[in-house]
Amino acid sequence: MTTTADSIYEPLTEETAIQLARRLNLFDAEADLVCREIGDGNLNLVFHVTEPTAGKGVIIKQALPYVRIIGEGWPLTLERARMESEALRIFARYAPEYVPEVYYTDNDYAITVMEDLSHLTIVRTGLAEGAIYPLLSTHIGQYMARTLYGTSDYALGAEARRELALQFHNPELCKITENFVFTYPLIDHESNVVEEGLRPLAEQIWRDAQLLREGARLKRHFMISAEALLHGDLHTGSIFASETETRVIDPEFAFYGPMGYDIGLFIANTLLSAFARSEHSREELLAHVTNVWDVFAAEFTALWQENNQEPLADAAGYLDDELLRIFQDAIGYAGSEMMRRVIGLAHARDIEAISDKDRRLHIKSSAALLARDLIVNRSHYKRAPQIVEALRQADRNEPILHS
Ligand SMILES: Nc1ncnc2c1ncn2[C@@H]1O[C@H](COP(=O)(O)OP(=O)(O)O)[C@@H](O)[C@H]1O
Ligand SMILES: CSC[C@H]1O[C@H](OP(=O)(O)O)[C@H](O)[C@@H]1O
C-alpha cells in the first residue's frame, strides 16, 4: 500500500466528484450536475460527471490504493495515476487526435480529469456487437507509429530518451504484466482461470519446453528493452471508437519498453474478437490485423526519413531490419497476450460471452494453438497476411505451416 498515515488521499464519491468538477470550474456555477461511477476496468474508479441539460460531461478517473476488482488484499501503487496522466500528455504531443485531452491532475489524490468520450464505444464491446470501425487500424497504426517513433532514440536522441524514460519507472505495473501476461499462463499457477474442458490443453502447454523457452525470452526482452514509451496495455478495451474517430485511453502501464509490445497487444485482441465471430463476419477484423501493420510500417518509415538522430540510420538495409525485428517482436507478444486471455487471469469478454460451450472451447483451443505458434515460430513470420493464414489453419485444427 502506498498511502501513509499522513497521506491526504481519500477515494472520491459521486458527491465529492461533483464538488471537484465545480471547484475546477468545468461547468457553469449554477449548472445542475449528476454523477455516476462507471468504472468497468480491473483497477480504478471512473466518475462520469454530466450536465444533462447542456449535454456536457467530464471524466474523473481515480486510482485506488489497491486493485479494484480484488480489494484491499491486493495493494497497488497510486503512482499509476501519475503514469497515466503524464503518458496521456506526452502521447498528445505526437498524436493529439488519438488521445483524450487531460484537463487536470492531482497526484496526491491520484486523480486525472479528462475529456468525456462517451459519444464513442469501447472497441471490444463494439466489435462483439458486430461493429467494424473502418478507420480503426489506420488510426491505431498511425497512433502507434507516432508515439513509439516519437519517444524513441531515433526521434529524440539517446540523451533525451533516457531522460524521459526516468519519469516512467513503473515497476509495480510492469510486474503485473510480467506475472500475468508472461509467467503465470505458462505455468500451473493458482491465478489462472482454465475452463473445464480446456485443462488437458493447458497441461500440454505447461509441459511444452519449446514454448516455455520462447515465452521466457519474450518476457526477458520485455523487461530489458527501453526502446520507446509504450502505452503498455493497448488492448481493445483501452480504445474508444466510432465510424470516424478513434481514441486510446488508460495508459497507466506506460513505461519504456519494446515497441512490438503495443503492436502485439492490438493484434492479439483483434484476433480474439475475430475468433469470437462467425467465420463469414471475420474478414473486416482480419483486414484490421494486416492494415495496422502496413500503416504502422509506412508511417514509421516516413518519420524515420523525416527526422532521425541516428547517424547510421541510412545504412543500407538497416530500416528494413528494424521493421522486421519490431514485427517479429509484435508477433511473439501477440502470442503471449492471446495465451493469457485464454488461460490466464483476465479473459477476453467477447469470447467468455459465447454461450455455446463447444464453440467457446473450440475458439479457446484454436486461440491457444495460434498463440503457441506466434510465440515459438515468430521468426517464421515475415508478412502480416501470414498471421491471418495461421488463424485460419488454427481454426480448422490444422498444423500451422509457414510458406
Ligand atoms: N475519457 C473517458 N470518457 C468516457 N468514458 C471513459 C473514459 N475513460 C474511461 N471511461 C469508461 O470507464 C471505463 C474504465 O476505464 P479504464 O480507463 O479502462 O479503467 P481501468 O484503468 O480500471 O481499466 C471504460 O471502459 C469506459 O467505459
Ligand atoms: C488484475 S490486473 C489484470 C489486468 O488488468 C489490466 O487491464 P485493465 O486496466 O484494462 O482493466 C491489465 O491488462 C492487467 O494485466
General description of the model:
With 403 residues, the protein is an alpha+beta fold. The chain has 2 domains: 14-115, Phosphorylase Kinase, domain 1 (2-Layer Sandwich), CATH 3.30.200; 121-395, Aminoglycoside phosphotransferase (APH), C-terminal lobe (Aminoglycoside 3'-phosphotransferase, Chain: A, domain 2). It is built from 15 helices and 12 strands. A 5-stranded antiparallel β-sheet has the order 1-2-3-7-6, sandwiched between helices. A 3-stranded antiparallel β-sheet has the order 8-10-11. Helix 2 (79-94) packs across helix 4 (136-150), helix 4 (136-150) runs antiparallel to helix 10 (259-276) and helix 4 (136-150) runs parallel beside helix 11. The model has no long low-confidence stretch (mean pLDDT 96). Adenosine-5'-diphosphate is lined by residues 38-44, 46, 59, 61, 100, 114-118, 122, 238, 249-250, 252.
Q: Strand-and-helix sequence, N→C?
A: HEEEEEHEEEHHHHHHHEEEEHHHHHH
Alpha-carbon distance between the termini? 51 Å
Biggest sheet record = 5 strands, antiparallel
Could you say which small molecules are bound to this protein? adenosine-5'-diphosphate, ligand LNRAV4D5
**Spatial order of strands in the largest sheet:** 1-2-3-7-6
C-alpha Rg (nearest Å):
21 Å
Give the proportion of residues in helices. 40-55%
CATH topology of the largest domain: Aminoglycoside 3'-phosphotransferase, Chain: A, domain 2
Integer count of domains:
2
What share of residues are in beta strands? 5-15%
Q: Quote the average pLDDT.
A: 96
Corresponding CATH architecture of the largest domain:
Alpha-Beta Complex
Shape: globular
Q: Number of DSSP helices?
A: 15
CATH C-level name of the largest domain: Alpha Beta
